[in-house]
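Entry 14. Structure prediction run on the chain below.
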Amino acid sequence: MLKPPSALDRAARGVQGRINRIIPEQVHAAVTTVIEGMTRTILTGADITTAPPVIGESLAQRDRRALAAIDAYRKTAAVEGGVAGAGGFWLALADFPALLVIKIKLLFDLSAVYGHEAERFEERLYVLALFQLAFSGADHRAQVFHGLEGWDARTHPADFEHFDWRAFQQEYRDYIDLAKMAQMIPLVGAPIGAFVNWRLLERLGQTAVNGYRMRWLAR
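Output returned:
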């Protein structure tokens, strides 16, 4: 998590930075507002069908549950990505909110697997932190990681007033832009979409499992 960016990472971030500087500020503000609204809506409703926290199991038992959940969500995301990739530009665009729902729902389920109550606001903040940990550049990732250390020993905000939605959406967008643009290529969009979504869910699941292990061991 604390590994500095490689030369390739720095080059890619440089290109993304130049692109972001070209995009008008009004567009950045609009995208931030849309992503904030979408994510907050998902966070509010994602725990409706989430199982209650698992009580009384060992860490190894919880890990087995978590791996089974990740496998199921990877398959769902791969199917969704394949269908979106085969459907051309407009379905590829629709893949963005659909995949966001799948990712957040996985994090809520893993929260329950490791014994946490997803309806608590601090748990929603932890879910967002894990999301950023999985899908951010090296510098922002290190900052988020330090914020997760000693999580249960600290107090946390009671609302989103000070949450940096701009950084959230820009880091996420920059991380997945190139992969998701390839999904729009005719003929190969379907296999690319399925593969990319599979790998994104795999990365998110592994990051989340280790994030919850970190909290377990800290206790």
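The longest helix spans residues 189-218.
Filed with the rest of this week's runs.
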